[in-house]
Prior knowledge:
This protein is of the alpha/beta class and 222 residues long.
Amino acid sequence: QVGRDAVIVALGGGVVSDLAGFVAATWMRGVRFAICPTTLEADIDAAIGGKTAINIPGGKNLVGAFHQPFLVAIDPRCLRTLPRRDLCAGMAESVKHALISSADFLAWHEANVDAILALDPSVTMRLIEDNIRIKADIVSRDATERTGLRARLNFGHTLGHAIEECCGFTLRHGECVSLGLVAACRLSHRLGLLEGSSAERVEHLLSRFHLPTRLETPIEPE
């Protein structure tokens, strides 16, 4: 009995906002939805940009729609309810945003690891605001990923999504993105497109946020 005037509200992490957004995009050809993210990954990535999707056996996020929320309401205090593993997983997306957009923001990460993990209020606010600004700027110029600009946001995700599925989703999304970032940097170095010191810098920063940089159990390349 939900009509076109309904509003669907997502309260939770990225999986919740993806699912709620997909339902909102498809129910009656589209109703409004709002996102109240409660995880760092959702705050700085999943809640921004209007990508909604569900996973199917053939792969991650293969069925979905572009459907922008009319409201995103973030309360940084929610982050204090997260297990440390989930907080750290969210940092993979933040490191990714820094790598694709701002050398200064990358250096800021390196200088503030302890304060970020301690959820220092002023540092947390800058972390969230700068990430939103970076992603929103890219999305606003290529909302439906037609020009290639928004594809920058997929850095680390091509291999990351494959790892995520091959591991049966036992790893956090951010942990797989971390592995994907390391793999992409190493591949770029092998192709002569990236200095080895830069690849090592990325790997070192991810490890400082307690993110994995190699798989403990290898997966079949095929």
